[in-house]
Amino acid sequence: HIHPPQHIASTKDAGYKLYRGGTIVFQLYFEHEFLGKVASKHFLPWCTTGGTKKLRTLHKKLIEDGAEEWYLVRIVPRRNLFDHLLPDNLGLFASFVTQHYVSRRNRIIPSLEHWIPHCGARLILNSNYTRKSSSKKDPTSGVLPSQLLKSVPLSSNDYVDNFNIFTEFGELTPAQVLTLFNEFINWSEFHQSPFMQAVESQKHKQHRFARSLDDDESADEPGELQRAKSKKSTDTL
Q: Fewer Cβ close by (within 10 Å): the C or N end of the chain?
C-alpha cells in the first residue's frame, strides 16, 4: 500500500515537488499499477507494548495521519530491466540521477560538461537528437497528465526532441534519462571523469549515514531491554 502514490507515479508534468530523482529511479526499476483505495484501518497493525520506542512512535504517526483511505498499488521488480540497464550499472544510474536532480532546472549540457568538458557537441550533433520524429508515440498518452496509473514499457532508445543547450533535466521522462545515461557512460572519458570520484564520495556518505542509524538503534535498544527486565522483575515480586 502507498499513501500517497503521487511521488512514485508522477510524470514530468507533475512539477518539482512530485517528479523527483527518486520517482525516476522507481519507475525504471519497478512496475506499478494502481488497484484502488482501501480504508486505512484495514492496514494499521496492532501496536503491542513490547515494541521498540521507534515502532510505537511510527504507529502513532500512522494513526494521526488523518487519511481514512489508502491507495492500494501493485509493485513488482521490472522484468526486463537488465535488458536496458546492466546490473553493474544500477548504482551508477542512481548516482547519476541523484547528482543531476538536485534541481530539475539543471541544464543537461552544462551539467555533463562539468564531468566531461566539451561533450555537449556530441549531444547536439547526435542525429538521434536532431532527427525529427513526427510518428513518435507518447507512452503516457491515455493516462492522467501528471500521474501514471500503470507503468509504461521501458525503453533505452528514447531521445528527447529538440535537444539544445537550454534543455533541462526536468524535461526528460525516465526512459529519456536512461537513454542519456547509457550514452554518457559509453564515452571514452567516462571512467576517468570526476563523476566516478563523486560516486565514491557519495558511497562513503551513505555508509556513514547507515552506521549512524545502526548506532542510534543500538543506543535505543538497551533502554528497551532494561525496561523489559525491570518489568519482569516487578512481576516476579
A: C
